[in-house]
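Support request from a user on the community tier.

User writes: "When I paste my structure tokens into the form, the page sometimes reloads and wipes my input. The last time it worked, I copied everything first. Here is what I submitted, just in case something in the input itself triggers the reload:"
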């Protein structure tokens, strides 16, 4: 069969908003149910078709086996306006150099060193929630605030308290819901503050030592040239880590509590293991010590992956598990669709954390689950995000019992991240004296 015939064999299914806004995900879900693993949608804004691929074999070929044949695709221009040329948006030699420079900051030991501070922040959050006295509250706002605090403490270390002594200059991330040009302008104005901190640290490098992500960026050197990052590159990486590191985690935790609170048996199991654990284990939660909490988080990430779409553009003509693409073709892979693929997930729409018990996970394609992406461009912050989420769930489950306010209509909103369309109201009851 010719290349043209293969391309024509992939069904064409309506139009696609190339900006990936509005009801794009809802339309992808509808077309997936009609056409299955591979289809094309016409993007009028681009004047060409975009491939939508949803089989684990497509995931493996696109993100792992043949990743070097693709670059980031549609939608990345909007992200670049917001975050600059950081790790999320850069390509080629720059991306490889930056990835290697930043990777040590997410080493297991570096992540473990941050866990006590994460637990302490969540202890403070539990105290605030318990103090609500049974009144409904917006959990999402609390989660946005605490995940922002955690990522800023990881970035700035002890300098964090100085930066927010009066007003938190990064509060716009939680105060502003839209991620438009106005927000991008406001965020980039923080570059002056970042530059002042970079300059201060360089001036004091002989007398003061910092052990945080910003210092890792300042100290990083290209492995070939030995050159440091430019100041602009450091600022872009900070913006990337702040935005990506707080919004995705906050969304994932909000969905986790929505699902756990809606399934009393799961909630009871998570609370029971948190209460039965020793203080030492709760101070440094590990997945093998808190399997119910870990599996609830993993299942929430399956049903509501914050990164709901990944985009790629072909750098050359190639074949993706039998689908032929030409140079310049755009491809979408939606973890939301892959995670709900009925051929790989039984009763795929249901919340069932036991999917992630070892014996069930072992027989499932590892390319059917990608909440943090896969391959060389997988999210560099995955270890920190998972540690943060586990510490949060264990701490709150030990200190509080969360209840959904009845009668709410909860829907998802697929923008930059997959988040609830409106606030989800909870009530809380303290489980032990503070």
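"...and here is what came back when it finally went through:"
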């Amino acid at each position: 069969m010719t290349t043209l015939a293969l391309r024509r064999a992939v069904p064409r299914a309506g139009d696609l908003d190339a900006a990936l806004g509005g009801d794009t995900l809802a339309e992808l879900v509808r077309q997936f149910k009609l056409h299955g693993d591979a289809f094309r949608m016409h993007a009028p804004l681009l004047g060409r078709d975009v491939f939508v691929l949803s089989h684990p074999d497509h995931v493996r070929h696109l993100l792992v086996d043949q990743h070097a044949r693709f670059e980031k695709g549609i939608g990345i221009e909007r992200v670049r306006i917001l975050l600059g040329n950081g790790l999320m948006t850069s390509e080629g030699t720059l991306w490889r150099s930056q990835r290697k420079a930043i990777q040590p900051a997410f080493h297991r030991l570096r992540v473990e060193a941050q866990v006590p501070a994460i637990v302490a922040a969540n202890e403070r959050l539990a105290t605030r929630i318990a103090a609500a006295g049974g009144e409904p509250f917006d959990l999402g706002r609390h989660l946005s605030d605490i995940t922002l605090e955690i990522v800023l403490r990881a970035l700035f270390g002890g300098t964090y308290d100085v930066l927010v002594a009066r007003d938190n200059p990064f509060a716009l991330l939680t105060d502003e819901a839209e991620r438009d040009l106005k927000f991008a302008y406001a965020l980039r104005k923080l570059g002056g503050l970042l530059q002042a901190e970079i300059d201060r640290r360089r001036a004091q490098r002989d007398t003061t030592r910092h052990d945080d992500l910003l210092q890792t960026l300042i100290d990083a050197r290209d492995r070939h040239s030995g050159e440091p990052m430019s100041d602009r590159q450091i600022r872009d990486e900070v913006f990337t880590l702040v935005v990506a590191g707080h919004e995705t985690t906050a969304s994932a935790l909000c969905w986790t509590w929505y699902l756990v609170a809606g399934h009393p048996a799961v909630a009871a199991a998570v609370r029971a293991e948190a209460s039965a654990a020793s203080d030492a284990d709760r101070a440094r939660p590990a997945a093998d010590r808190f399997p119910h909490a870990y599996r609830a988080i993993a299942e929430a990430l399956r049903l509501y992956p914050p990164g709901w779409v990944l985009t790629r553009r072909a750098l050359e003509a190639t074949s993706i598990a039998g689908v032929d693409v030409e140079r310049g073709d755009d491809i979408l892979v939606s973890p939301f669709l892959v995670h709900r693929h009925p051929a790989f997930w039984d009763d795929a729409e249901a919340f069932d954390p036991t999917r992630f018990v070892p014996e069930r996970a072992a027989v499932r394609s590892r390319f059917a689950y990608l909440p943090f992406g896969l391959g060389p461009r997988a999210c560099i912050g995955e270890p920190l995000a998972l540690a943060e989420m586990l510490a949060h769930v264990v701490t709150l489950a030990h200190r509080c019992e969360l209840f959904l306010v009845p009668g709410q209509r909860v829907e998802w909103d697929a923008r930059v991240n997959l988040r609830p369309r409106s606030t989800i109201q909870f009530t809380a009851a303290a489980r032990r004296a503070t």
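Agent notes: The reload is a front-end session timeout and is unrelated to the input. The longest strand covers residues 38-43. The chain has a mean pLDDT of 90. Escalated to web team.
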